Amino acid sequence: PEEAANNNRNVYISKLRGILEKMDGFTITNRNKLWSIEMAPEGKCDWLEVKRLFAKAEDSENVSRIVELLLRGAMLPNSEFDWLDSYKGDFSNITIDILSKLFDAESISDDLKIRVANTIFMHDFLNEEALRAKCQILYKDGKTGLAKTTYDNFCKNYKSSLGMEYEVDFKNIIS
Question: Which pTM value belongs to this model?
Fold first, then answer.
């Protein structure tokens, strides 16, 4: 019923206001029956900062900051709502697309490329581009055992998720 829905909304808005009051620079407003969260200029939001930095992802300083922010964890990891899934999925897709392009960038250090691969794995633990880049860099740096362990863990996750063996062998990954 409409009355119960209004009551539920008011309860959740009140709870949200309580959370936002603890954070500097955020307010919740209602204009023309539309609710929104507004951030003051001094407010900080990792998601907004990452989106801004994505536009300048070719700069290694920006890539380093993007990776730093994204390695804090996935977007809203403990929130499971049907309406939220498309936002989380879109963000993961954009993240993977932008970061995957960085494996070919010569201006990005190998250490940062490994961090990029780890970030991609947080969004897609079966990402073959991230596997290839990480294993190649580790192998090139003489960390053969670590490269093989990374590959073996990927193969184990691949089999448990898809029910079949990963068909690309380690030699093809590192070459």
Answer: 0.77
Span between the terminal Cα atoms of the chain, in Å: 63
Beta bridge partners of 38: 27
Of 44, 57, 55, 52, give the one whose Cα is nearest residue 119: 57
Q: How many CB atoms lie within 10 A of CB 42?
A: 7
Do residues 138 and 150 lie in contact, with contact meaning Cβ atoms separated by under 8 Å?
Answer: yes
Contacts of residue 170, Cβ cutoff 8 Å, sequence gap at least 6:
135, 147, 148, 151
Q: What is the pLDDT of residues 15-31, one digit of tens each?
A: 888 877 777 788 888 88
Coil, helix or strand at residue 171: helix
22: tokens are 């603890």
How does pLDDT run across 95-141, given as a tens digit for each residue? 999 899 989 988 889 999 999 999 999 999 999 999 999 999 999 99
Asked if 72 contacts 46 with a C-beta cutoff of 8 angstroms, the reply is: yes
Smallest Cα–Cα separation from 84: which of 73, 95, 92? 92
Residue 99 in 3-state DSSP?
Answer: helix
- Say whether 26 sits in a helix, a strand or coil: strand
CB atoms under 10 Å from CB of 71, counted, come to 12
How many angstroms separate the CA atoms of 122 and 72, rounded? Answer: 10
